[in-house]
Design goal:
The protein has five helices and seven strands, in the order αβααβββαβαββ. The chain has a single domain, classed as Aminopeptidase (3-Layer(aba) Sandwich), CATH 3.40.630.30. Helix content is 33%, strand content 26%. It has a seven-stranded mixed beta sheet, with helices on both faces. The chain is of the alpha+beta class. Coenzyme A binds next to strand 4, helix 4 and helix 5.
C-alpha cells in the first residue's frame, strides 16, 4: 500500500475517515501493529467474531484505502481501550487523538462513565495529554468520560 503525502495536518484531517473495522482492513492493521511492536496480535477470525458481537469493537482511521490507525474497544463490565497504533509516518499530526476521542465518544454514548487502558512505556505522555491519569498500584491509566 503506497503511503500518501500531505503538506499539512489540515489536509490530512479533511481526507481522514474514522469508521468501524472491515475484514479487508486486517492485513494493513496487523502490519501497523507489528511495526509498532504491539504484543497480542489478534487473528482475523477472532476479530470477525468480535465485530459480530459488537460492531464498534475495532475502529480504524483510513485515508482512501490506507489504514493509518486503529484501536480496540472493550465495552464489557468495564470500558477499556487497547492497541491504539498510528502508522509511524502519520504520527504527531493529531490522528491518535482523533481516533481515541471517537472511541471515548462511543463509550460515553453506551453509558460508561470511566475508561481504562494500559499505556506502552512510550505513550504515557500522550495519554496524560489527553487527561488520562495513572491508577494507583496498577500499570493502567483511566479517564472520566
Ligand atoms: C502513542 C500514539 C498512538 C500517539 O499517536 P499520534 O497520532 O502520534 O498522537 P497525536 O498527534 O494525536 O498527539 C496528540 C497530542 O499528544 C502529544 N503526543 C503524542 N505522542 C506523544 C508522546 N509519545 N509523548 C508525549 N506527548 C505525545 C502530541 O504532541 C499532541 O500534543 P498537542 O495536542 O499539544 O499537539 C503513536 O505514537 C503510536 O502509535 N505509538 C506506537 C504504538 C503505541 O505505543 N501505542 C500505545 C499502545 S497503548
Amino acid at each position: 500500500m503506497e503511503t500518501q503525502r500531505f503538506d499539512g495536518a489540515e489536509k490530512l484531517h479533511s481526507a481522514l475517515e474514522l469508521r468501524r473495522y472491515k475484514p479487508s482492513d486486517f492485513d494493513q492493521m496487523i502490519r501497523n501493529q507489528r511495526n509498532a511492536g504491539l504484543p497480542g496480535i489478534m487473528t482475523s477470525r477472532f476479530l470477525e467474531a468480535r465485530i459480530i458481537n459488537d460492531p464498534d469493537s475495532t475502529l480504524v482511521a483510513v485515508i482512501g484505502c490506507e489504514v493509518i490507525a486503529s484501536l480496540y474497544l472493550h465495552a464489557e463490565t468495564d470500558a477499556r481501550i487497547s492497541s491504539l497504533v498510528v502508522k509511524s509516518n502519520y504520527r504527531l499530526m493529531g490522528v491518535g487523538k482523533r481516533l481515541l476521542c471517537e472511541a471515548e465518544r462511543i463509550l460515553k454514548e453506551k453509558g460508561y462513565l470511566v475508561v481504562c487502558l494500559k499505556p506502552s512505556d512510550t505513550s504515557i505522555g500522550f495519554y496524560k495529554k489527553l487527561r488520562y491519569v495513572p491508577i494507583e498500584r496498577s500499570e493502567d491509566m483511566s479517564k472520566q468520560l
